[in-house]
Amino acid sequence: MEWIEISIFTSWEATEAVANILHDVGVTGVVIEDPQLWKKRKNQSQFDEVWDLKIMEDSNEVTVRGYLPADELLTQRIERVREGVANLPNFGLDIGRGEIKLNKVAEEDWATSWKAYFKPEHIGKSLVVKPTWEEYEAQEGEIIIHLDPGMAFGTGTHQTTSMCLKALEKYVKGGECVYDVGTGSGILSVAAAKLGAQEVAAWDVDLVAVKVAKDNIKLNGLEEKITVELGSLPEKCAPAQIIVANLVANIIMQLAPNFQNNLTHGGLLICSGIIQPREEEVVLALQEQGLKLKERMQEGDWLCLIWEKA
Predict the structure, then answer these.
(1) How far is it, in rounded angstroms, from Cα 190 to Cα 279?
(2) Does the 159-309 domain belong in CATH 3.40.50.150?
(3) Would you say 219 and 146 are in contact if contact means Cβ atoms under 8 Å apart?
(4) Fold identical between 2-112 and 159-309?
(5) Check whether domain 2-112 has CATH 3.60.15.10, yes or no
């Protein structure tokens, strides 16, 4: 299948709004290239020649990138993206350059080119996210997550994912039931299981992500612990001790009642993908469900909020 890569060059302030526009036209996962991340990692020697570090260091521009199938609806979807981005200043958002760039990408080429951007990543005290094509010798006490993101998203390199991984490392004690909402590549499900969760149930609305997550679960030998389904967290099912949701603010607020319904008393909700200007809205939505804010994590302009069901 041929895909169209759509890249939007914008400001950090408009990042989530731009991501939402892409979600609205059918992009089920976005890549966010944030200069703050590159600046943080520039001395870690984990970049190939594909990165122009001088450009990244001098830039404050965020690139939001997604993929659309080259089908009969493509022209209509791209026009909706253009209109949506052009309309953001009417809501008081600085869109920066606001330029939109399109590029044809064959699925196999996309998967190959992505590998140059993804190196073994140490996260938290013991977690190491290792691409399947990279060599890495595990050190004592390290927990290795073998991963091939394919056409799904979630590698641990972005702040939103890394904060969720750190939160799971802190709060998974062993024996829990964990729900992973919007699993993407399955990285958070695999981490929860390897940290000691007894069972993990994951959901994603993207069929490609479901397939990729299942492949990564098998790659880590965790088929008996983790299940993945197409869809989202049901309104009510057996309660879990931990729910992790690395989404965006709008979807987190929409799912707030479901989070409350599906947590045990004393259970934790780990939610990320929240840009700082949206914090107040998210906090109010979850507080209205009776959840109590337990911990606030921040990396750059991104937040991870951890809630407890009293």
Answers:
(1) 28
(2) yes
(3) yes
(4) no
(5) no
Q: Would you state the structure tokens that stand for residue 40, as one six-digit string?
A: 């943080």
pLDDT at position 29, please?
64
AA letter at 204 = D
pLDDT in tens, 214-265: 999 999 999 999 999 999 999 999 999 999 999 988 999 999 999 999 999 9
In angstroms, the CA 212 to CA 151 distance is 8
**Close Cβ partners of 109 (under 8 Å, ≥ 6 residues apart):** none
Which strand (E) or helix (H) includes residue 155? none
Are 39 and 163 in contact, with CB atoms under 8 Å apart? Answer: no
**pLDDT at residue number 309:** 97
Helices (H), the chain: 15-24, 35-41, 53-58, 74-87, 107-114, 159-171, 187-194, 207-219, 249-254, 256-261, 279-287
Tens digits of residue pLDDT in 124-173: 999 999 988 888 888 899 999 998 876 556 666 678 889 999 999 999 99
Where are the domains positioned within the chain?
Answer: 2-112, 159-309
